[in-house]
Design a protein that fits this description.
Order of helices and strands of chain B: HHHEHEE
Order of helices and strands of chain A: HHHEHEHEHEHEEHHEHEHHHHEHHEEHH
Oligomer: heterotrimer
Structural class of chain B: mainly alpha
Number of helices of chain B: 4
Radius of gyration of chain B: 22 Å
Strand order of the largest sheet of chain B: 2-3
Helix content of chain B: 25-40%
Largest sheet of chain B: 2 strands, antiparallel
CATH architecture of the domain at 6-44 in chain B: Orthogonal Bundle
CATH class of the domain at 6-44 in chain B: Mainly Alpha
Helix content of chain A: 25-40%
Number of strands of chain B: 3
Shape of chain B: flat
Mean pLDDT of chain B: 91
Structural class of chain A: alpha/beta
Low-confidence stretches of chain A: 42-48
Strand content of chain B: 5-15%
CATH superfamily of the domain at 6-44 in chain B: Glu-tRNAGln amidotransferase C subunit, N-terminal domain
Largest sheet of chain A: 8 strands, mixed
Strand content of chain A: 5-15%
Low-confidence stretches of chain B: none
Number of helices of chain A: 18
CATH topology of the domain at 6-44 in chain B: Histone, subunit A
Mean pLDDT of chain A: 94
Strand order of the largest sheet of chain A: 4-6-5-10-11-9-7-8
Chains: A alpha/beta (526), B mainly alpha (98), C alpha+beta (526)
Distance between the termini of chain B: 33 Å
Chain lengths: 526, 98, 526
């Protein structure tokens, strides 16, 4: 029963729970067992095996208590949210009252927030069961989760490969059937790129669609929280729980969440005949970075399926996208350098005294603590951002980057004049080997070339699996983009494409993941 | 933009309050030079007539009513403090004046 | 006069004031920080009440906890605009907050949310009345919104100051309190009156802010703080253009926390700069600290190229674009300018310039106005507030307005005097009761039994006893020496414990001694 339960979608689990066929405790226990089985050291009950390491913290007791409360409430006839009792994994960038929150950084090791992020509060209100906190690149800086201060997460498709980043923990937890749902945050692709390389679904909503209150900020004007799931419908169900106006976030949109669940159901049922789909010329494999052949092949196949289903494919050009990566790698470090200044060892977090200094000053303790608590990538970006904001360089770098942002918005506006949604491959390649790009920051940054423009413009984007690349048998993703506030279009098209692909594959792509048996876990590189 | 010197990296690290070892300074100045070389193109893309975008969506005038809300207790506030004394955050001696 | 060695060394530090002014022209700049009296902080819902237990008025936002986000206090914005309007400023059609980045332990985020190149109000002026009635117009550069820092207690060392302290204890209750910073343009042409202009400006600004009702403006509590910038430039040769002479290096004197100190600190810096410059030295661009006790400034932090605040637009707050209707609505709430109001009241009350100035300097204008509004004549109201009440305030070391008595109570008291129910002595006793918290004057009179005894039989008996006991005096009165009656009246009043109408006592004495009280005779009464 439990191995069956962990493979269910959230929508299916919700149906079983509602029908009383399983209890929330059973569902929760099944997932906790799975975590113990495959997640490796740090997970409850695990031996010293190199597991997936999707979780930084597993909240087993709290999860079971919450699940029992849901069962009791259901038994007493209380009206519950559709997803009540469904387990979820929460990215460690979101504050959770009473649960450790580190954002993948050693500087926050042991910190227990006194408050819940708005998103987390909403999960609790809908009575989803929080299983624990998922691993991520430190402060969400990275595309591989190798920059976590607590060791990398491994891709369930191949434990020697990266699960993407920064939200590799959430994506891997889904692909490893450790959780049916997870939360993510996406600053330049941190939800979509991990979804792409793990064969899962991830959505970055319109900027302001989901509250940022309680998300440990990376780049405030780019960060956006969103749902991670194994199906488009599951993502939509979670999106509606997470989204909505929050008076605690000044940048939160004061309007209703788009009807994404309805759009997903409509799309799966009614298809997309007559819809205009724009292929972004600049993100179609030519030029910078170069797209892996298998990624392009699956992308072209998806386009063919959409055409067969009655969509009209048009090519659009977004010339400013060639400068998007450059603009992003100025804006992000600039904002991050300021957002991360608060980690100074004075009020919370790691405090380290400099070696060989007697009676150190506050200034020295700050510098030593930040040196000890931050990893290389974080230091690199803070220094870069400090440079880009410093007097004499501001106009040339930060100022120019903000202008590029305007051009990218204009490109999108023009493209959405001729197309309802835009498409591209989500990431240029399938999952690469752990360590392959660790010493080459620029190569690492190129993973985000297709996902970054949406963050710069504030528009919503989705990644869903397009199939497995022939050359390595690893999943590739297709990215859908819609105008700001039109998140529902992503779900309509995404669900339609998903149902066409499922038909072609004869089932979920995740059914093809090699079983995570003990032999595989032991055989993986440590 | 010219190469970023080791001294400049040291100055930036000081502004950013991060103690860097000599080898880190060397490595970072090399990496920053590469990264800056690659991002420098932003300066040539947009003309003077293009306005800057600092917020992705054009929201304005978001304010809240001047009504007190419950905050944290002193105990909660100090729970994560590396050091506390007399219901205050204890910090090492401060060298520089504000 | 003999000069000690110590004085000689001091004399080198400063030049005589007249000597300094003969050679140099002082150039002033004043920065005033005012704490608004909103109920909550600038960006969060924490209370702003002064004097709470440490770290009890804090939340994730003002503690700078990871994930927290600011939301602007609408009332603070309103106050900022009203201050701008009252200073004849232009109000920005569109402006933003900016982050001022620097590390300091009392600043939770290690950046201050402030405004940089887009202040809410700019380009205004304030007309300042000097002691001789001359009006000096001070140009206002800008007024912008920002947040206050926490407060550090420096422990260890001998001084309690930051130098030599072993560690510091930080309380963040003040962190995030709304501040408006009002910055003048350079003030030139004040000449020898520069210190007076500085004091008068801060005083006039304080009155204006008080009239606006936006702040407690208590310099001693830090709700109004002044930094005074000063530079000297050499006087131009006779006939030459002074404005063509290059400005000198300026110093910024902080911690100037009373009006008198503003004047003294500017005066001191003029003499110090002059001494340095005439001895061939150079003025360092630095902050100076004012010492109220010794009347000197000492060197603080040197401004250097290292001060790079890396300002950039605050991405967590959205722009402010107040529309014209809103602004005009606020303009309609502006009070009458304090100077105009004083002139009007002086006319209404028929007070002399000196009487009005005394009222103003004593902080009694509002109190007299309120007392008059409650039905008392201006002359009587003035007498109360500059007489007995002023004496009491001095005795207690508090401001007049802080006395535990309201203008309405004074009006009631005066009414009792005028109706003959109380005489002056009794009125003072009633006031004692009011100040002691025993209630309104009428309540005190009733509770203490203070009413004038108007029962002639009781008074008559007392008069008879006084005549009997002082037969010598009685004889003198009978002989026509009416001035001797005073002694008998005093005796009666003493017996009656002051609770008699002295005029009536006099009548009774003269009646009994059959002397008619001729008009124009000397008067023993009141």
């Amino acid at each position: 029963m439990s191995s069956d339960l962990i493979r269910r979608t959230a929508a299916e689990l919700a149906g079983l729970l509602r029908a009383g066929e399983v209890s929330a405790v059973e569902v929760t226990r099944a997932h906790l067992d799975r975590i113990a089985e495959v997640d490796g050291p740090g997970a409850a009950g695990a031996a010293q095996q190199p597991g997936v390491h999707a979780f930084l913290h597993v909240a087993g007791e709290q999860a079971l208590a919450a699940a029992a409360a849901v069962d009791a409430a259901r038994a007493s006839g209380e009206q519950l949210h559709e997803l009540a009792g469904v387990p979820i994994a929460v990215k460690d960038v979101m504050t959770t009252k009473g649960l450790p929150t580190t954002a993948g950084s050693r500087i926050l090791e042991g910190w227990v927030p006194p408050y819940d992020a708005t998103v987390v509060r909403k999960l609790h209100e809908a009575r989803l069961i929080v299983l624990g906190k998922t691993n991520m690149d430190e402060f969400a800086m990275g595309s591989s989760t190798e920059h976590s201060g607590y060791g990398p997460t491994r891709n369930p498709w191949d434990l020697d490969r990266i699960p993407g980043g920064s939200g590799g923990g959430s994506a891997a937890a889904l692909a490893a059937f450790e959780a049916p749902l997870a939360t993510g945050t996406d600053t330049g692709g941190s939800i979509r790129q991990p979804a792409s390389v793990t064969g899962t679904v991830g959505v970055k909503p319109t900027y302001g669609g989901v509250s940022r209150y309680g998300l440990i900020a990376l780049a405030s004007s780019l960060d956006q929280a969103g749902p991670c799931a194994r199906t488009v419908l599951d993502a939509a169900l979670l999106h509606e729980v997470m989204g909505g106006h929050d008076p605690l976030d000044s940048t939160s949109l004061n309007e209703p969440v788009p009807a994404v669940v309805k759009a997903a159901r409509d799309g799966a049922r009614d298809g997309i005949a007559g819809l205009k789909i724009g292929v972004i010329k600049e993100l179609h494999g030519e030029g910078e970075g170069g797209y892996q052949a298998g990624v392009r092949a699956r992308f072209d196949e998806s386009l063919a399926l959409l055409t067969e289903a009655g969509a009209e494919i048009v090519e659009v050009s977004c010339p400013s996208f060639t400068a998007a990566l450059a603009a992003y790698y100025l804006i992000l470090p600039s904002e991050a350098s300021s957002n991360l200044a608060k980690f100074d060892a004075m009020r919370y977090g790691l405090r380290v005294s400099p070696a060989g200094v007697s009676d150190p000053s506050a200034e020295q303790v700050m510098a030593a603590s930040r040196a000890a608590g931050f990893g290389d990538e974080v230091k690199r970006r803070i220094i870069l951002g400090t440079y880009a904001l410093s007097s004499g360089y501001y106009d040339a770098y930060y100022g120019s980057a903000q202008k590029v942002r305007t051009l990218i918005q204009r490109d999108f506006a023009a493209a959405f004049e001729v197309a309802d949604v835009l498409v591209s491959p989500t990431a240029p390649t399938t999952a690469f080997k752990l360590g392959a790009k660790l010493d080459d920051p620029l190569a690492m940054y190129l993973n985000d070339v297709a996902t970054i423009p949406a963050n710069l413009a504030g528009i919503p984007g989705m990644s869903l699996p397009s199939g497995l690349a022939d050359e390595d048998g690893l999943p590739a993703g297709i990215q859908l983009l819609a105008p700001a506030r039109a998140d529902d279009r992503l779900y309509r098209v995404g669900a339609a494409l998903e149902s066409l692909l499922l038909k072609q594959w004869g089932g979920s792509i995740l059914d093809r993941i090699p079983e995570l048996n003990d032999g595989r876990l032991e055989g993986a590189n440590r | 933009m010219s190469a970023i010197s080791r001294d400049e990296v040291a100055h930036l690290a000081n502004l950013a309050r991060i103690e860097l070892r000599p080898d880190e300074l060397d490595r970072l100045s090399g990496q920053l030079e590469v990264i800056l070389g690659s991002v420098a193109q932003v300066r040539e893309v947009a003309g003077d007539d293009v306005p800057a975008t600092s917020h992705p969506l054009p929201l304005i005038n978001v304010t809240r009513p001047d009504v007190p809300r419950p905050g944290l207790s002193a105990e909660q506030a100090l729970a994560g403090a590396p050091a506390a004394q007399d219901q205050r955050f204890r910090v090492p001696r401060i060298l520089e004046e504000d | 006069m003999t000069t000690t060695a110590h004085e000689t060394s001091r004399l080198k530090d400063v030049l005589g004031y007249d000597e300094a002014l003969a050679a140099f022209d002082p150039v002033l700049g004043l920065e005033v920080h005012v704490e608004l009296n909103t109920a909550t902080k600038m960006f969060c819902g924490c209370s702003t009440v002064f004097g709470a237990e440490p770290n009890t008025q804090v939340c994730p936002v003002c503690l700078g906890l990871p994930g927290a986000l600011p939301v602007l206090n609408g009332a603070a914005l309103e106050s900022a605009i009203r201050i701008g309007l009252a200073l004849h400023c232009d109000i920005a059609e569109w402006c933003r907050f900016a982050r001022k980045n620097y590390f300091y332990p009392d600043m939770p985020k290690n950046f201050q949310t402030s405004q940089y190149d887009e202040p809410i109000a700019f380009n205004g002026y304030l007309d300042v009345e000097l002691e001789d009635g001359e009006i000096f117009r001070v140009q206002v550069e800008r007024a912008h919104m920002e947040e206050d820092t926490g407060k550090s207690l420096h422990v260890g060392g001998s001084t309690g100051r930051i130098q030599g302290a072993e560690f510091s204890l930080v309380d963040y209750n003040r962190a995030g309190i709304p501040l408006i910073e009002i910055v003048t343009k350079t003030i030139e042409g004040a000449g020898e009156r520069a210190p007076e202009v500085a004091k008068a400006y801060v005083g006039a600004l304080r009155d204006l802010l008080r009239a606006l009702g936006v702040s407690d403006v208590k310099m001693e509590q830090g709700s109004l703080r002044c930094d005074a910038n000063l530079s000297l430039r050499p006087k131009a040769a006779p006939g030459a253009d002074q404005s063509a002479v290059k400005l000198g290096t300026r110093t910024e004197t902080k911690n100037v926390n009373s009006l008198r100190s503003v004047e003294r600190a500017v005066r001191y810096e003029i003499t110090r700069h002059a001494a340095v410059l005439t001895s061939g030295g150079t003025i360092l661009q630095e902050t100076r600290h004012w010492h109220e006790d010794t009347g000197v400034t000492t060197s603080g932090r040197e401004k250097s190229d290292a001060d790079d605040y890396r300002y950039f637009p605050e991405p967590d707050l959205v722009p402010i674009a107040p529309d014209a209707t809103y602004i005009e609505g606020l303009r309609a709430t502006l009070p009458e300018p304090p100077q105009e109001r004083r002139r009007r009241l002086q006319g209404d009350w028929s007070f002399s310039d000196k009487e009005m100035r005394d009222l103003y300097n004593g902080g009694a204008v509002d109190l007299v106005e309120a007392t008059v509004a409650a039905g008392t004549s201006p002359a009587a109201a003035r007498k109360w507030w500059t007489g007995e009440l002023s004496r009491r305030a001095n005795l207690d070391g508090v401001a007049l307005a802080e006395l535990a008595v309201t203008p309405a109570q004074i009006a009631q008291l005066q009414g009792l005097v005028e109706s003959g129910a109380l005489n002056d002595t009794l009125a003072r006793q009633a006031l004692e009761g009011v100040l002691a918290g025993e209630g309104d004057p009428a309540e005190v009179v009733a509770a203490r039994g203070l009413a004038v005894v108007s029962d002639d039989s009781a008074l008559g008996a007392a008069v008879d006893r006084a005549i009997e006991a002082n037969s010598g005096i009685a004889d003198k009165i009978r002989a026509g020496k009416l001035s001797a009656a005073g002694a008998l009246i005093g005796s009666v009043m003493k017996e009656m414990r002051g609770q008699a109408d002295a005029a009536r006592v006099r009548e009774l004495i003269l009646e009994r001694l059959t002397v008619s009280d001729g008009t124009g005779a000397d008067n023993a009464g009141h």
